[in-house]
Each structure stands twice: as C-alpha cells, then as structure tokens.
Design a protein that fits this description.
With 153 residues, this protein is an alpha+beta fold. It has one domain: Multidrug-efflux Transporter 1 Regulator Bmrr, Chain A, CATH 3.20.80. The chain is 20% helix and 35% strand. It has helices at 24-40, 104-117; strands at residues 4-8, 11-19, 48-52, 65-71, 83-87, 90-99, 127-130, 143-150. An eight-stranded antiparallel β-sheet has the order 1-6-8-7-3-4-2-5, covered by helices on one side. The longest helix has 17 residues, at 24-40. The radius of gyration is 15 Å and the shape is globular. The relative contact order is 0.24.
Length: 153
C-alpha cells in the first residue's frame, strides 16, 4: 500500500457517537443519524471524520465506539446531542482509500499491518477523513476518503 507521511493540524470537531459492531452498521449510522443531524445544524459541506475509539480486535462488538465528526470553528457552540472533541495535531501516515463501505475494514487491516511491520505505527487516534465535497457514487457505492494512522517521528 502506498501512503504519505503528513503533519496534520489539530481539528476541533462536533461528534455523535455510535456504539456497536463495526461494519455496515456504521454506514447506516452516518446515513440515518449523523447526516440528518449535520444538515439540521447547518454543518453540511464541511470536512468530516470517523474516529474509532476502540480496537475491534480487542473490544467486544457490542462495546465498540465510533465517533462521526464534523469540523467546527473555534466559536461554534456545540449543542446536545452532539459533543465536542479535538483530533490531535501530529505526524500521520495517510492512505488514500477509494472503494465501498464493505472494503473499509480490510483496508484498515492491511494499512495497520503494513505500518506495524515497518515499525512506524504509534499510539493515538486513528481516523478516516472525508472531504467537504464528499460524494458516494449511487450506482456503485464507491467513495473516497483518507485513512490516517499516527506514526513515530
């Protein structure tokens, strides 16, 4: 897998949390819960992030947490049910993913495996970053995002 090493800035986000098994249910959460909330609070057309709070290989599926996030300005007042968080600045390996939702877990697995084998992976938040003009091809379900994993300096 080809990836780039990038210095990413700190990002303030508003998020809604999904709890349960990773996979197709996360896509449903984005579509049925997060996107309607995002539109209702005039936060559409902004960079979004998906942050896995737990390692699905060591956390029971029913307890796995995933945050669907959207960038917000410093002065934006985050209102319930959303919560506020910060995605930390740092050095990340960034892989440009293009595929369908059901291909995401395998891409993460391969990317993690490669970085661990290279001795580059570091502790910290791993996330998916979706562009402000995110679009999914309705016919194929294909979309583009970036998979970001912290790496050692």
């Amino acid at each position: 897998m080809k990836y780039e090493i990038k210095e990413l800035p700190e990002v303030r986000v508003a998020y809604l949390r999904y709890k349960g098994p990773f996979g197709a249910a996360i896509g449903d959460f984005w579509k049925e819960v997060f996107t309607p909330w995002q539109k209702a609070f005039s936060l559409a057309g902004k960079v979004t992030y998906g942050v896995a709070q737990d390692d699905p290989s060591t956390t029971p599926a029913s307890e796995s947490r995933y945050d669907a996030c959207v960038e917000v300005a410093a002065g934006y007042a985050v209102q319930p049910p959303a919560k506020e968080a910060v995605i930390p600045a740092g050095r990340y390996a960034v892989y440009s993913f293009k595929g369908t939702g059901d291909q995401v877990p395998a891409a993460w697995g391969e990317f993690f495996g490669q970085l661990h084998a290279e001795g580059k992976a570091d502790a910290g938040a791993c996330f998916e970053r979706y562009p402000a003009d995110y679009a999914m091809d309705p016919a194929t379900g294909v979309f583009e995002s970036e998979l970001c994993i912290p790496v050692k300096a």
